Amino acid sequence: MNQHDIRRAVLQANFIQLSSELTVDQALETVKNHYLNEEDTLPQFLELLVKGVASKRDELNQVIDDRLSDKWQFNRIAKINIAILQLALYELQYTETPTAVAINEALNLADEFSDEKSKKFINGLLSNFSKQ
């Protein structure tokens, strides 16, 4: 798996957790079954990101909420966009991923899983965060 494939799998594991009652381990198992052969192991970076986002979810959500304009409410954001933002913000705050890479990967995921309006929203929020 390349780095983008890993982030796509992390996004899907995160979205699974946001949309269901599955635990982190169950979400990881679901992703593993989808992406890997039985004898393969999950890439360490994938597991680190999935578990990291899950462990910091409340803090990441607060960062998102703090950057919303008065016109927006957190609960109005599509879950897939929350999942993209959580992943990008986790990478920006807790890994050594360069800022430009984390934002670009988030925008690539938005291209795949969201729409143009949401992509602009994601870009704006992440750009705002990275300038602090």
Automatic annotation (TrEMBL):
InterPro entries per UniProt: NusB-like_sf, NusB_fam, NusB_RsmB_TIM44
GO cellular component terms listed in the entry, alphabetical order: cytosol
One GO molecular-function entry: RNA binding
S-adenosyl-L-methionine is among the record's keywords: no
Every NusB/RsmB/TIM44 domain range: 12-131
PANTHER family: ANTITERMINATION NUSB DOMAIN-CONTAINING PROTEIN (PTHR11078:SF3), N UTILIZATION SUBSTANCE PROTEIN B-RELATED (PTHR11078)
Protein purpose: Involved in transcription antitermination. Required for transcription of ribosomal RNA (rRNA) genes. Binds specifically to the boxA antiterminator sequence of the ribosomal RNA (rrn) operons.
UniProt record similarity statement: Belongs to the NusB family.
Protein name: Transcription antitermination protein NusB
Species name: Holzapfeliella floricola DSM 23037 = JCM 16512
